[in-house]
Every structure is written in structure tokens, then in C-alpha cells.
Description:
The chain is α/β, with parallel strands linked by helices. It has helices at about 30-40, 50-65, 85-90, 105-110, 140-150, 165-170, 185-190; strands spanning about 20, 70-75, 95-100, 110-115, 125-130, 155-160, 180, 195-200, 205. It has a single domain (about 45-215), classed as Rossmann fold (3-Layer(aba) Sandwich). It contains seven helices and nine strands. Strand 2, helix 3 and strand 3 (about 95-100) form a beta-alpha-beta unit. The chain starts with 20 loop residues before the first strand and ends in a 15-residue tail after the last strand.
Amino acid sequence: MGETSVRRKLKKRKLKKPVTVHAASLSNNFDVAYFRKFYLNASTRVVTAAEMRGRAALIAGALRQCQIPIRSILDAGCGIGLLRKPFKELLPRARYVGLEASRYLCGRFGWIQGSITDFAQRVPFDLVVCYDVLQYLSDPEAARAIVNIAKLTRAALYVSALTTEDWRENCDRSRTDRAVHLRSGAWYRRRLNKSFRYVGFGIWVRKNVTAILWEMERPLR
Length: 221
């Protein structure tokens, strides 16, 4: 995870061909200590409630502009639920469901305990949010998660994951969890492009969904 508002000035260097990089051995069990450090402690947290309110507003506003109605939301890897209140205010008719791997958080907040790699739902959601989750999965697990996400949403997806470029150029390493799998953005886009079209700012829509965008509003092809 990384705090996008803070950017380090790194010396430019020649980049090798993108490969999977493991910044550290994966040892997280997502217990109370993890969430205190990365979400609750003001001196070490990677994201604030204000930032997540802005993210929710961006998602809701973009999908409203695309004329895609949202009545149900799956927040996969919802953490302490920083998106729940903003979505309730911005999309008051939408049902919010939190999915979380942490037994600790599920016990505290009542989320559904499970993994985005194999979570199943009889009726798909209008929107799936997958914020800073995929980098905690191995290559095979992340690939399965993306395939599963396409089954879980019938309309839209917001996805963000720490990439190799983010680690080198964008994130504040003093606040960013090192126990992750780093991959290129291209690795994710190749797999997402099989089922989704990119709208912008991390927002994707299923290829069978009509998103009304004027020509100058569309991302470059």
C-alpha cells in the first residue's frame, strides 16, 4: 500500500524488463498490529479517511457521469471500512458489503471473511472495489482474483494495486508495507482488458456495459 499524496524524488535509472519482484517475504497475518500501524496511527498510516472520501467521490461521480446506476457494492479487502460511510452518503440507495481476509476485522466490524480469489455470490454486484489487495497475492492468486472479479461485478470495477513503478517512483517507502508482490501495471492491465474497458482513475467497466462517454472524455487508446 502507498500514500499517493506523498512522492519521493528518486534518481532516474535505466529500468530492466518488468518482472515480478518480492520486496520482502510475505508474513502478514493482518492482525490488530498491522491495522494499527498502517491505518490508525497518524504517524505511520498509509491513507486517511479524507483521502478515502475523495476516492469514493471520484468513483461515484465517474460512474454517475457514465450513466451507470449503482445499487450494490462489494468492497473486497475493505479493511477498517473507510469507504463505507462515504459510499452511504454518495450512493444512499446502494447496498454495501465488506469482504475481508482478516479474522480480527471481521470479528470487530462484521465483515464477510473470505478471499477475492474464490469468493462467490449468486447475484453479481453493480460495483466491485479492490483497493490495495492484489499486491498481497502471488501471481497465480492475483490472476485468479481478476478472473473472479469479472464474475462478481455486472457493471463496474475500481482497482488499485502497488506496482513496481509505484515502488520506485511514487510511494512513501517509510509508510508503505514491504511484504508484497510487486508487478508491473501492464501485468494487471493485460488481464483486466480481457473483461473490462478502462474509463480512467482506476475505474473499469465490463465490455458488455454501455458507458456513455464523450470522445474527449475517453482515455487515449
